[in-house]
Amino acid sequence: MEYFAQQMVNGVTLGSVYGLIAIGYTMVYGIIGMINFAHGDIFMISTFISLITFIALLSIGITWIPLALLIVLIISMAMTAVYGWTVERLAYRPLRASFRLAPLITAIGMSIVLQNYVQIVQGARVKPLPPIIKGSYTLMEKNGFTVQISNMQILIILTTIILMLAFSALISKTSLGRCQRACEQDQTMAALLGINVDRTISLTFIMGASLASVAGLMYLLYYGVIDFYIGFVVGIKAFTAAVLGGIGSLPGAMLGGLIIGLVETFWSAYFSIEYKDVAAFSILIIVLIFMPSGLLDKPEVEKV
Amino acid sequence: MKNFFAALSALAIIGAFSSAAKADISIAAVGPLTGQYASFGQQIKDGAEMAVKDINAAGGILGQKIKLLTEDDACDPKQAVAVANKVAGSGVVFVAGHFCSGSSIPASKVYEEEGIVQISPASTNPKYTDEGGPNVFRVCGRDDQQGATAAAYIVKNFKDKRIAVLHDKTAYGKGLADQTKMAMEKLGKQADMYEAITAGEKDYTALVTKMKAVKIEYVYLGGYHTEAGLIIRQMRDQGMSATLISGDALVTNEFWSITGDAGEGTLMTFSPDPRKNPVAAPLVKRFRDAGIEPEGYVLYTYAAIQAWKLAAEKAGTVDPAKVTAALHSGAVFDTVLAKLSFDKKGDVTLPGYVFYKWSKGSYDYVK
Description:
The structure holds 2 protein chains of 2 kinds.
Chain A: H1 2-32, H2 39-59, H3 65-92, H4 101-122, E1 127-128, E2 136-142, E3 145-150, H5 151-173, H6 175-185, H7 187-192, H8 197-223, E4 225-226, H9 230-245, H10 250-270, H11 276-290
Chain B: H1 2-20, E1 25-31, H2 38-57, E2 66-72, H3 77-89, E3 94-96, H4 101-114, E4 117-120, H5 127-130, E5 136-138, H6 143-157, E6 163-167, H7 171-186, E7 193-196, H8 205-213, E8 218-222, H9 225-237, E9 243-246, H10 253-259, E10 267-270, H11 281-289, H12 298-315, H13 320-328, E11 333-334, E12 339-340, E13 354-359, E14 362-365
Parallel strand pairs in B: 1-2, 1-3, 3-4, 4-5, 6-7, 6-8, 8-9, 9-10
Antiparallel strand pairs in B: 10-13, 11-12, 13-14
């Protein structure tokens, strides 16, 4: 039981990280129907921005961690948003009227460009950050086995829940959200009714990138090791999560992230760790066979 | 800014070579210059550049200057073969490399076909020389030696402790973990857990909880420093105080920059530290003056090139077949590591492995 509880904590934390990134995939898909393959690399760039900002802050003497974290978060969100906006403006908008696969190909190109850019500018070595948020709580104890949840894990889970609620409210309650939903349904009609489609799509990319930067900061603080390649690995998992949950659906992305995280963790916990990815992707295949549009599906999925 | 100057000085060094050397003899140093093992590739590059500089300053080899090619295999077996072909195509007679056993083994097949001498400073998997051609050598130890040393130490000191054996599925990691496990079992100690992890991942919390549940006190990892560092951090997060024991892939300061103080007390096996060899002292000083700490495999790479040079001088030619014969002749080569010679397989006759402990950011012999 204690063992199960501890693995649950591990799995939910991992799932939250996947879910946060998956939201970025799902929002973009929802509105323009394309997979933004560069999203994982936007996430990777945000981890680098956070790390650099952190070091800069420490070197100018801001060492009070909560303040430093807040400044890092704001700067990282702003700069990552600029990257997200630029990627959309350069690689996707000029091709919006083109055939469907064109932006998909530029997305893959963009992903390679961003990876190589960071590799050249920052070097190929892993960049470490020593543990900053330390400490943990003991939830249960039995026969010498303690169930612990670290402050970092609490922070990740809370951040994810809050952002999830905030973004759901934003989509369903605000006028920006209404614009996004309108563009999702029919861009031409939305434009005829006076919605600035370009601006709405740009804002969607900005929102997706900011969310990725929050996930990036959490990732950096939790694991403490980043390199130019992390975007690919994490991106694949998050993309899988988005598809599993039903791409285009916000709660679906979160649910998908949690399921992937939990399956990986519990497979590792009770079977061989070696085959956990096999387990996670098998779940994806099984779900897609029986529910081709994911768990919380949106109707009419178009194939890419 | 520091990087910028390092890059400038590297450029200056390359510039100096290309102007001084009229490309008489080409040799290559290959290692992972990108990717997560890049710090080891840098060690190989640093060692090779210094060795070539010293040889050229002393008049070259048989009166000819040496030109060094540095190539990147990213520790990826496919890229290693591609790089090996590229190096072979550019007329190289000797390769110091590669780093990862997983790259050295497939690359050695190419070098064998092309008749190029290969001396690896770091690949410890037994298969490298056991299955390699006559042109294959190494100046480091073998994982069966390393595993035996680790097992003997574990059985002697931690006989009643609970121990997990992990590996990262690479040629090096799995080879080493399996050798250690086998040697432990021969000495009558069973591992309480045996698991494989995936290199390049960041989340090992499930593994840590699994180890915590069976009260593991010592973790033996066949793998590299990034995963070792992450596992240690995540063990401490979950309140586990188990000690990590690993092999020679932890000999980089990058390990400490990942773990911070959590790495205190980590044990590893590595050959006797060549920096402590009095013969090496002037060279070590020159490395430090150049801003390079000759840790890990820097001096091994230097010695690999030295051994090849001495063998070529003995053979009176750089013709790979004759140099191979000279290396195999059992002759003693006086290198910065020690006076060494090679056996029939191409393994070096150096003393085996010793235990080191990480403490306060550096490693030293276990007292």
